[in-house]
Design goal:
The chain is mainly alpha-helical. It has eleven helices and no strands. It is about 70% helix and about 0% strand.
């Protein structure tokens, strides 16, 4: 059994990394008071941007992979402006705004792939991201560094205190002369950039091209990890590993003889089943920032 766990570790970490990156983005956004259920759509945009950039540039330049990840983050950041304007400036319902982005992302990615590749997906790239020592992909180190920086800023820097205050007591923060609108805009844009980066990590490690099913609900799994982790950095680290391990189990079930009596479909739905259960158990708990989802206007 121990050998099986070691065998599963590289694939588990590969799956955990984008979930953790996206959940960290959601943490920053919701800590500022803006609900962001658009992670799925932003990850889709990032995945499409990364795959397109890598396909077009891998034979021309030697650093197409890191450039593709950067472009994925930029694409997610730009696309998140829609959510920022709708939910902060126009004070629209933040859930409706996020849902609209999720729907728009599916359509706009197909439109661009049709435009560039004359089909509803990108072309296959020759070589995706390769694992490093111990067959571990570098994306997990990117995810852990992002989480550590986020923790440090949130709890050790004045900027983090202001961001948390924007999600807990925005009126009190404004009375101290701090621009709540600006903080929330920055948080939404950072969240979009991290979600885009997460999408890029998925398509470059777990796939050979971008399709409309590349993300396949992982943005919602990241949201569940955020809720299950109680909007805390260490909490989302643990919950991301939980969801990543359940997803990796579906891939590695063939190597676990004691569980082979169960149908493969059971393990395919396991990550989403755990997502539904955790959302049902924790959605009503008072762990979220107090002002999360509440519009703020001067």
């Amino acid at each position: 059994m121990f050998n099986t766990i070691l065998t599963m570790m590289p694939s588990t970490l590969m799956i955990v990394a984008p979930i953790l990156i996206a959940a960290t983005g959601g943490l920053i956004c919701e800590r500022s008071g803006v609900v962001n259920i658009a992670l799925e759509g932003l990850m889709t945009i990032g995945a499409m941007a990364a795959a397109t950039a890598h396909v077009l540039l891998e034979s021309k330049i030697g650093f197409s992979l890191p450039l593709a990840l950067v472009l994925a983050a930029v694409a997610g950041c730009i696309f998140s402006i829609i959510h920022a304007v709708a939910s902060i400036t126009l004070q629209a319902d933040q859930v409706v705004s996020g849902t609209g982005i999720n729907l728009l992302a599916n359509g706009i990615t197909v439109f661009f792939t049709q435009l560039l590749f004359q089909m509803d997906r990108t072309m296959n790239y020759k070589l995706g991201m390769m694992p490093g020592p111990l067959r571990i992909y570098p994306t997990i180190w990117i995810a852990l560094i992002i989480l550590a920086i986020t923790w440090f800023i949130l709890y050790r820097r004045p900027a983090g205190l202001r961001l948390r205050a924007a999600g807990e007591h925005p009126d009190a923060l404004a009375s101290a002369g701090v621009n709540v609108i600006k903080i929330r805009y920055i948080a939404v844009l950072i969240s979009g950039a991290l979600a885009g980066l997460a999408g890029g990590c998925i398509v470059l490690t777990q796939d050979i091209q971008f399709t409309v099913s590349t993300i396949n609900g992982k943005g919602f799994i990241a949201l569940a990890a955020l809720s299950f982790g109680r909007w805390l950095p260490l909490g989302i680290l643990g919950s991301s590993f939980l969801f990543g391990a359940s997803s990796a189990l579906a891939v590695n079930i063939i190597n676990i003889k004691s569980l082979q009596f169960l149908p493969p479909e059971f393990f395919n739905i396991l990550p989403y089943l755990i997502t539904l259960i955790t959302l049902a158990l924790f959605s009503g708990k008072d762990y979220a920032p107090r002002a999360s989802g509440q519009p703020y206007g001067n």
